[in-house]
Amino acid sequence: MAPRRTPLYDSHVRHGGKLVEFAGWELPVQYEGVIAEHKAVREAAGLFDVSHMGEVVFEGPGALETCNELVTNDLNKAADGQAIYAGLLNEAGGFVDDVICYRFSPEKILVCVNASNADKDFAWMKAHAKPGPVVRDDSKDWAQLAIQGPKAVGILQKLAKTDLSSIAFFHFAEVEIDGKPVIAARTGYTGEDGFEIFCRPADAEALWEAILAAGKPDGLVPCGLGARDSLRLEAKLALYGNDIDDEHTPLEAGLGWIVKFDKPSFTGKAALEKQKAEGPRRKLVGFTLTERGIPRHGYPVLADGAQVGVVTSGTMSPTLGIPIGLAYVPPELTSEGSTFAVEIRGKPVAAKVVKTPFYKRK
Amino acid sequence: MADLSYPEDLRYTEDHEWARKDGDELVIGITAFAQSQLGDVVYVDLPDVGKDVKAGSDFGVVESTKAVSELLSPVNGTVTARNDALVDAPEAVNEDPYGKAWMIKVKPADPGAFDALMDAKAYAAFVAKQG
Lengths: 362, 131
Prior knowledge:
The structure holds two protein chains of two kinds.
Chain A: E1 4-5, H1 9-14, E2 18-22, E3 25-30, H2 34-43, E4 45-49, E5 54-59, H3 63-68, E6 82-89, E7 95-105, E8 108-113, H4 118-128, E9 134-137, E10 143-148, H5 152-157, E11 172-177, E12 180-185, E13 194-199, H6 201-215, E14 220-223, H7 225-234, H8 269-278, E15 283-289, E16 300-303, E17 306-316, E18 323-329, E19 339-344, E20 347-354
Parallel strand pairs in A: 1-3, 4-14
Antiparallel strand pairs in A: 2-3, 4-10, 5-8, 5-9, 6-7, 7-8, 10-13, 11-12, 12-13, 15-18, 15-20, 16-17, 16-19, 17-18, 19-20
Helix pairs in contact in A: 2-7
Chain B: E1 11-12, E2 17-22, E3 25-30, H1 32-38, E4 41-45, E5 52-53, E6 58-64, E7 68-72, E8 77-82, H2 84-88, H3 92-95, E9 104-108, H4 120-130
Antiparallel strand pairs in B: 1-2, 2-3, 3-9, 4-6, 5-8, 6-7, 8-9
């Protein structure tokens, strides 16, 4: 099957993006270079095409209750115009996906899902939703751009009449950017301030060009998937398929804060309650290597020569200049300063647990 | 970024390594095309001096931000030198692939091995076919 193209495909080609296949989509892995783009986002701003993300909408009476039953976080604790990060779990407590739920009103919730899971998630939600509201896959109706970095809000403000700074972190508003109707959400996947902008596919290219032009004097650059991955890893934001999947729970992944046990019920609650009582047998930790090497997804974690865990993500941190990674390890190896080895091409390389996120903006 | 040039005095492999004659030894590195495909190089692992290398077999590793790639020796032989400066500054692979980013020197088992490799013209044609 040929990979799908976002409405920004022509722009990526025109701007010299190096296209690769990702989650069934043809997207740029980089333009100028991963490290240059990464640093631009940390120091100025970067613009990402995230149109591959899926959007599922719950609409009608009972939308909030129906959606809330499927996710770990609590939509009742969000206000209209607020977004929450949540787990969409199976009965065993494993992640079907990690999602952001946008509460427009108790009768309209938009769930943004990972591209790689979009079809699976929609089928899961349709199958498990209590009857009542419409559950609709609106993915084709939306393109998405993310502008991220310390200068992101200021750049976007040049194209908006609404005061964007009044939209708080993890809140959103329906506004006009460059005269086009969008949903501007103060969210992101880089550890920086910024917005994720949902727009009509037909407006995506003009919006992309307008934002790039507005941000050029401030150092805004187009960014690819490579920088997106290293940025999110420094900020310890989980990547589905790497750090979390249907066999790992939020408690194991260090995402207990997105699980609201005081909700009367949600899919996976019983399994998580049991795991919480017994204590998870493995936990996701951040580490650095104290010898030369770069940790990568799938490398074994060794203690006393035996495999006790696995690396889920790793890279050479462009901001910190050191190798960083995430790994599932047994509870006794989770405290800061704990040591283990990562097996790299057959050789054990010394590693040390460090505090996460690896990078936190000031 | 270095431009995609292929110096005439070098010989090349289909695995995108280059070799340069240096007396009866060969200096080995990866090509401008290889580094452009890899992206930002952040790590290089090279063999110890004295190690035997085999044509087409890996003698080390180069890693970009995203990917791990094996370095494949153009010839059979023995490692006589290693560029330790490159280990500390792997970005030279992107900036100067035929100069500062030389990787190892090898004493080839067969002195004629160099001439059996692709010349610049043949390699450029090979790369063009890679799309």
